[in-house]
Write a structure and sequence with these properties.
202 residues; homotetramer; mainly alpha
């Protein structure tokens, strides 16, 4: 299978999962109290932003992978489906964190968010390394340094998210701050695969 | 009509129907009880996963069909619309199963889910066999073995889902387990059309 | 502006508007009463089907128009936006009809549905006739019979929907039945533009 | 990175954000009061229309930018993500305005709407001027007058939305009317970049 239509479906899931996040941002208050209620709801906006950017970064990474992959076999399609299933799940724990940022449920919310993102990172790793191992599905003309750059950048992903998840057992606030910091770091670092190389060279 | 834009619309419906499933996954609990409530909601996650993968597999199959179809006539467009109408309906019975997994409503939920998927399988069959009969819409250069492989793989679909539906009359839990098993089987078997052939050869 | 990306945005709106219809289909009942409640909710399924098919048919028509249009100017983009704004509005009156099929609110619901579809038909007409008048945006190589066939088929649209809307003032049930019949007619007739011609010839 | 897939993701977010607006349009009333309730809900329809058109106009602008941009580097991808994050946020303040059009919460709602659109305009400016400065990412064969026309048209955007936002501190109704007028103006003016030039010339 050529990878074109796989991209169309994946782009759809990424775009919808990110955009659906707004459904859980809502503020209900009597008119006179609306101003205060809108400000008080900042955790919902922060959770929206962190998850939107996280999904957006994963979309950029997904694209970077697909760009060097020439063909898709059925195992790869399955791994891609499992990955998208994780991505589309992100709005649920995002909503939990926004709803419980100020109460004792934050630990459970952070653990749910963390388990979701760690599983997503594991699926992303499987998706990539299945394609990259022995250049199984890699385009013959793909730059080997680019391929190994992507591989290197994917190794720590699960570990980073797994660690931030475990931190929630000790302190949920710190764990949530770490998830925001990871998204911000990836966003600022921007060029995730081996420095500023591949993207800006293209 | 060339099949390109038909794919764009279909990809959209598949991606949205799958991603919308997350809207029905939600947990509301006071902070202290959130951890337990999140674990207790596992049927919602399982229902999400089974339906997401079912829709995902149908998307893969839809693509496999479109790949060998050269043109679309108006009857085919209509059959395609009916198929997409069934696919986009899946979130509704999925939600019923998740909501009633532990009560006496499971039978009605499983029957609704089963009737939806059986109807979907019948629509999928009509969609395919209309195009394939006498190679009506099949591309002249499409491999006949591939075409007959798809035909062979579609014959049992309605029967399998129909049987799992009828099982709900006897035991709803077994019926629901069968729906999960069918999704898992198709996912693992992966290459649904005549073994590992067509996709990995491409 | 080439019409390619216009199609991508339009396909997205059509696909999302159709798929979002399922959000309003829901049944809440205690376990023991679920079977009856699922059957009792048939108007929600019927409304879903009628609106899904109506949006689907409009998508087919939209595609048929775009196929013979070579370029888009800014007025055309605006008319396209207004058309999509109407299409994306359809889930709202659909929900009203499903919710009030058995009570005295059906008249207001049918009027709302009818006004929405009549406005959509007027927007569709403006969208098409702006492009077709004097072949302003029509591709030079487009078959004149095809173009005039589309024009002929669009003339009665607003009238048909407008009539079905006015019928609601006299009898809401008949009006709703007419909307379903119109969708079914277009679906069966299938080839809306001048018989079975253009699509099957392509 | 070629800009093709960036467009696919962006088109998805624009289309979904616009279409999701309908979710917040709903009317619940007993049958006998439905007619009055449907009419009474006009602010929800107006808010839907203004935001749908605003997002639609931004989509047209986004396309006009992408058309003259040849490549995307990672900073540009990040700026694009931030812009889409703002666009996908629009349904939230839209809903606030519709819900509070008749009570004292309108000031807070208008401020929230205004801050969202002003931030979006700032993000849009950053997105464009990052690409345009020194023709960093501009296609070598792009018409310089077209590029400077876009630049000129983006300078006042943030200012216009910022002013309409500040007006809410004095009179919320006037501020809301200004937002509607801005959308209408852009829609009628249609050709936003330097008169009727680029689009109709293409």
């Amino acid at each position: 299978m050529e990878t074109g239509r796989l991209e169309a479906f994946a782009d759809g899931v990424f775009a919808i999962a990110a955009t659906l996040l707004i459904i859980d941002v809502s503020v209900t208050a009597p008119g006179g109290a609306l101003g205060h209620a809108v400000l008080h709801a900042w955790p919902a906006y922060a959770a929206y932003a962190v998850s939107f950017l996280t999904i957006g970064i994963m979309w950029v990474n997904h694209h970077a992978c697909i760009r060097v992959i020439a063909v898709a076999d059925t195992t790869f399609l399955t791994l891609n489906l499992l990955l998208l299933m994780c991505i589309a799940f992100v709005p649920f724990p995002t909503n939990l964190i926004a709803a419980h940022i100020r109460d004792s449920g934050l630990r459970a919310a952070a653990l749910t968010y963390g388990v979701t993102l760690t599983t997503t990172a594991v699926c992303f790793g499987s998706f990539w390394f299945y394609a990259a191992r022995g250049r199984r599905l890699i385009a013959p003309d793909a730059d080997p340094r680019l391929v190994s750059g992507i591989s290197r950048s994917y190794l720590p992903g699960s570990l980073i998210y797994g660690t931030a998840t475990l931190v929630a057992l000790w302190n949920a606030q710190v764990s949530v701050a770490l998830f925001a910091a990871i998204a911000l770091f990836y966003l600022l670092e921007s060029s995730i695969f081996g420095g500023r190389g591949p993207e800006s060279e293209a």
